Write the structure tokens for this entry.
Amino acid sequence: MLDNLVDQYINYLLVEKGLSNNTIESYSSDLAVYLDFLKKKRIKKIAAADTTIILKHLTALKDAGLRAKSRARHLIALRGFYKFIVQEKMMEHNPTKIIDLPKEGLKLPDVLSVEDVKLLLNTPNTKKPIGIRDAAMLELLYGTGTRVSELVNLKLQNVNMEACFVRIFGKGSKERVVPMGLYAKEKIDRYIKESRPLLLKKNVSQHLFVSRLGKAMTRQSFWKLLKQYGQQTGIKKKITPHSLRHSFASHLLEGGADLRAVQVMLGHVDISTTQIYTHVARKHLVNMHKKYHPRG
């Protein structure tokens, strides 16, 4: 069944699209690899091969050593194939549409170790008002997995200190409620009581985090301070706000958290977007097995 679909698609490219032989050979090769993957997963119907399966396939290609440029080309071949499937009314939606195609190809997230995260979070000088603020921002970013834009736009009224959660307004103004943890609660509480009034001076702001001038923090200013703290730690990995968001998700999964719970906390509309983090969690399990199993 799947082989016949690919044959129909290749014939469509040859007859109706008039693509070159080199392009058709390239598409045929990529789709043959994809079919082998589906057969190994015992998937016999194309409708069962959704976005999650495609992400797993692309991850497997990366693990096999396929370069970013080749993986990007592979994804383009899959996009065309699924577009054809939708046109033929064998599927309602193209599952490749929500998979981004960066210039470098599909990238898996950079993840910091728990030790590196601890080192980073303890870097700000909390003897100074700015350091108290920065410590609270870093702790909240890692403790809730927020995007940097969500962090700097967080309002004071969105933080519930008693229940220990924050209300976050993400993409499309969609609201989600995320627990923030005791460490974040303690640091935010100290910031609100000791540091924020000093930074505000006589100004008034609805924003939780404010600058030296008493105005709302910007994405650019937070990126700059995070880069500085990263350099101070001596951590060799590139540290960005996304690094902490990725680490938040990966560390939760490594600890046994449910994928759907992580999806909700990250604010992902589709679980297939969250699925990419399971690769990191699997890698952790493999390393643990090698380390502790007598036959590892």
Notes: The chain has two domains: 2-87, 114-288.
